[in-house]
Amino acid sequence: MRLAKYLADAGIASRRRAEVIIRQKRVKVNGITADLPQTEVGEKDRITVDGKEVRRTGNKVYFVLNKPPGYISTAVDTHGRPTVIDLLAGIKERVYPVGRLDADTEGVLLLTNDGELAYRLTHPRFEIKKIYRAWVKGTPGRKILDKMSEGLFIESRKTAPAEIKLIDRDEKRNLALLQITLTEGRKRQVKKMCAAAGYPVLKLQRIDFAGITAEGLNTGSYRALKTDELKRLFGMVGLNNKFTCIKSV
């Protein structure tokens, strides 16, 4: 098994984040620093991250959190800032976020220790839908919304087509509420798209990730995913056969 996948299965981080941790030379295999994510490891190997031994867990768990602003979407923050893991009192398994939300962004965030599912849900080829609500400065007209929907060039690369709707406006404060549906997940994409169009984001909330919402959850609260939600997620990313082995908590 590749080292990055082992760390993901152990609940250290998503596979992509695990690759970063490995390249930062924070991982040792049998006492020797391993800086290649593709390093092959087995159950008999002793693996440590930042000096702490890690082991894969057989119990997979899946949660949705209604993330409040002010929390970093990572398992551990080297600067000592509060992370979303701090909100998960009562969960004994080591879990990590599926993708990321900026510290000042709130809303739906999935967490799991299932490395394969997390990897696929964040991989661009599966085009997982993510829906955001963004309060922006100014009110974009139909032409601007159409241009944003068709794709904008951000950092020399055009964004994939998106669905963008004007939901509400506050004429007194010159604000507008947009609903933006994406199928790709570039870093800070919503903020960069709106800024490129001339309408900076003042507040951002994710209301849906792959059909999962935070309905009924207070800010900062979480719940386990339901069986039907898990079945749908596994089906979206071609893991139908694996779902039969998964038990909802």
- H-E order: HHEEEEEEEHEHEEEEHEEHH
Overall number of structural domains = 3
Structural class, judged by helices and strands? Answer: alpha+beta
Mean pLDDT over all positions:
92
Q: What would the principal axes of the Cα set say about the shape?
A: elongated
Shape-level CATH architecture of the largest domain? 2-Layer Sandwich
Number of strands: 14
The CATH topology of the largest domain comes to: Alpha-Beta Plaits
Question: What is the CATH superfamily of the largest domain?
Answer: Pseudouridine synthase I, catalytic domain, N-terminal subdomain
Assess the beta-strand content as a share of residues. Answer: 25-35%
- What kind of sheet is the major sheet? 8 strands, mixed
Low-pLDDT runs: none
Give the helix tally. Answer: 7
CATH structural class of the largest domain = Alpha Beta
Task: Give the SSE layout.
Elements: H1 3-9, H2 15-23, E1 27-29, E2 32-33, E3 47-49, E4 52-53, E5 62-67, E6 96-97, E7 106-112, H3 115-121, E8 130-137, H4 142-150, E9 153-154, E10 157-158, E11 163-170, E12 175-182, H5 189-197, E13 201-209, E14 222-224, H6 227-236, H7 240-243
Parallel strand pairs: 7-13
Antiparallel strand pairs: 1-2, 1-3, 3-4, 5-7, 5-14, 6-7, 8-12, 8-13, 9-10, 11-12
Describe this structure in words.
By secondary structure, the protein is of the alpha+beta class. The chain has 3 domains: 3-53, Structural Genomics Hypothetical 15.5 Kd Protein In mrcA-pckA Intergenic Region, Chain A (Roll), CATH 3.10.290; 62-124 and 212-243, Pseudouridine synthase I, catalytic domain, N-terminal subdomain (Alpha-Beta Plaits, 2-Layer Sandwich), CATH 3.30.70; 129-209, Alpha-L RNA-binding motif (Alpha-Beta Plaits, 2-Layer Sandwich), CATH 3.30.70. Helix content is 22%, strand content 26%. It contains 7 helices and 14 strands. Strands 5, 6, 7, 8, 11, 12, 13 and 14 form an 8-stranded mixed β-sheet that branches. The protein has a 4-stranded antiparallel β-sheet with strand order 2-1-3-4. A hairpin with a 2-residue loop joins β9 and β10. The longest helix has 10 residues, at 227-236. The protein is elongated. The two termini are 27 Å apart.
